[in-house]
Structure formats: C-alpha cells, structure tokens
C-alpha cells in the first residue's frame, strides 16, 4: 500500500522559513512558498537569486541550513528510505540542459527511471517509452536515435518524456524554453498546459520567458531579497510596488508579453 496519500488537501509543496547559505553568501533567508495541487507556478527572479537552489532544495538534492519543506504533506527530511523512494518517484524533473545521457538512445533515456524503480520486461519498457515519447510530442522514429541526432526542441521533448516516465504527480521544469525559437517555445508551453490538464499534474516551472509566464502560469513566485517576495497571478503582481517586479513585468519585454506579442514575433521570426 502506498505510504504517500495523494488525495489529501492542502498544498502539494510547502516551504517554510528556508535558509540556504554557501560560506558567507546567504541565498535564501526565511523563504516561504506554497504550491497548490494542479497549478502551474512560475518561479522568476534575477540571475543568482536562488531559483535553482530552491528547486534543488525541494527535490532533496540540496541540504539546507534551516527551515522545513514538505511534499505531499510529508517533511522531506528524516523520511524512512521507503517513503523517500516513494516521494521521489512522484517527481518528474527536466533540468536546465535536458541532461540526457549521450551514450543512450532516446528510448533508453526514457527507460532509465523505469529501470531504477521497476522490474519489467523489455517489451513493456519499449511500449512505455513509446507512449511517453508520444505524450511529449515525439514519434516512434525518435526512440532509436541518440540525443546528438535530435534538434534542441526535440531534445527538450525527449527529456520531458523521461521526466514523465514514472507517471509523476509533480513536474519540475528548469528553464524549459531556454534556447528554443519562439515557435518552438510556444509549442512547448502549449504541451505543458495540455499535459497538466490531461494528467492532472502540478508544475513547478523556473523560467525567464515572460511569454511562458503570461501564457501558462496560474501564479508566479518572485524571488528577490533572499525570499519569495510574492506568489500571485501576474495581474496582482503588477500592483506591487517593488523595483524588480515593476522593471520585469512593465519593461518593454514585459509589455510585449502582456500584449500576447509572441505571435507577432513568431511571424516576424524573431
Ligand atoms: N553548490 C554551490 N556552491 C556555492 N555556491 C552556490 C552553489 N549552488 C549555487 N550557488 C550560488 O547560489 C546562488 C544562487 O544560484 P542559483 O543557481 O540558484 O541561481 P538562479 O536564480 O537559478 O540563477 P540563474 O537565473 O542565473 O540560473 C548563486 O550566487 C550561486 O553562485
């Protein structure tokens, strides 16, 4: 029987009083964040504000100096091994550079988490890999290819297929549209939205892409001054009188994204 109950109410991720420090550099101080079940939450902030460190802390990859992080209502520190494995297999993670294994085919990459957590026949694994690649918008011809044989956009999709391999409830995406052209980025955004709706995912999404924030995020968490300054729909963030928020969302790129101009940039090919 599962030790993690997924039908409970309340936030799916709860971060309270988080402190992260490297030597004398304090990255997070008293940082709080709640992520609600089924939402797509965007995480933004200037370079070096600790977006990736926050994600790594939630994933249990980064030991933190103080605070408490709970996922599915369970604190992530001090879990018994069985519980920790069960929490981990409910995450799907797409790291910033995709992080596919270059010596494995795309299908084998998708099968890596399956091999880690399950024992199943090769036929079944091939079937699952094909299905997950399909979910990520790749055809069966992608399976036998090596990552180096794919375009940047296809590599992102392959990495997404791998992140989906264990049927996660919670998907973490670090800069998923970085390096994609505007058409590829818009298509990827659309895919995330579709998958959230079809699979009932909760999505934690680090991005600098204002179009993504406007198009698919239910709320946006702003990291500044070592904490989450606010986590709210963009319309509410626009009311906050903080220089970074005002510059970011009301600057030229913010205004363009607000007007839905990605379509125009797509047409112009920029
Ligand atoms: N393992 C580490 N050792 C020392 N310092 C680190 C380590 N990991 C992160 N940092 C520092 O913590 C700060 C936050 O890093 P992080 O990668 O989370 O920033 P970010 O907000 O994701 O930035 P970007 O938008 O540029 O990707 C940076 O100053 C970084 O140098």
TrEMBL record:
PANTHER family tied to this protein: PROTEIN TRIGALACTOSYLDIACYLGLYCEROL 3, CHLOROPLASTIC
Keywords for this protein: ATP-binding, Nucleotide-binding, Transport
ATP-binding as UniProt keyword: yes
InterPro entries: AAA+_ATPase, ABC_transporter-like_ATP-bd, ABC_transporter-like_CS
Domain spans labelled ABC transporter: 13-250
Record-level Gene Ontology MF annotations: ATP binding
Pfam families: ABC_tran
SMART domains according to UniProt: AAA (SM00382)
Domain of life of the organism encoding this protein: Bacteria
UniProt keyword tRNA-binding, yes or no: no
Name under which the protein is recorded: ABC transporter ATP-binding protein
């Amino acid at each position: 029987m599962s030790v993690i109950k997924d039908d409970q109410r309340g936030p799916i991720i709860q971060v309270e009083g988080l402190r992260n420090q490297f030597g004398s550099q304090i990255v997070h101080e008293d940082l709080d964040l709640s992520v609600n079940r089924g939402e797509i939450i965007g995480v933004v902030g200037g370079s070096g504000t600790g977006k990736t460190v926050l994600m790594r802390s939630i994933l249990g990859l980064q030991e933190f100096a103080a605070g408490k992080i709970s996922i599915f209502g369970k604190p992530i520190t001090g879990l018994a091994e069985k519980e920790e494995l069960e929490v981990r297999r409910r995450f799907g993670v797409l790291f910033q550079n995709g992080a596919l294994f270059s010596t494995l085919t795309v299908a084998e990459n998708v099968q890596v988490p399956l091999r880690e957590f399950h024992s199943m026949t090769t036929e079944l694994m091939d079937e699952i890999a094909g299905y997950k690649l399909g979910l990520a918008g790749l055809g069966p011809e992608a399976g036998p290819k090596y990552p180096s044989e794919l375009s940047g956009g296809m590599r992102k999709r392959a990495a997404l297929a791998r992140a989906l391999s264990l049927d996660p409830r919670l998907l973490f995406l670090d800069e998923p549209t970085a390096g994609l052209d505007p058409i590829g980025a818009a298509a990827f955004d659309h895919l995330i939205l579709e998958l959230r709706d079809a699979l009932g995912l909760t999505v934690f999404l680090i991005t600098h892409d204002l179009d993504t924030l406007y198009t698919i995020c239910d709320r946006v968490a702003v990291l500044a001054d070592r904490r989450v300054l606010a986590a709210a729909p963009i319309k509410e963030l626009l009311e906050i009188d903080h220089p970074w928020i005002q510059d970011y969302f009301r600057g030229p790129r913010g205004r363009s994204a607000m007007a839905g101009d990605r379509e125009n940039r797509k047409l112009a090919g920029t």
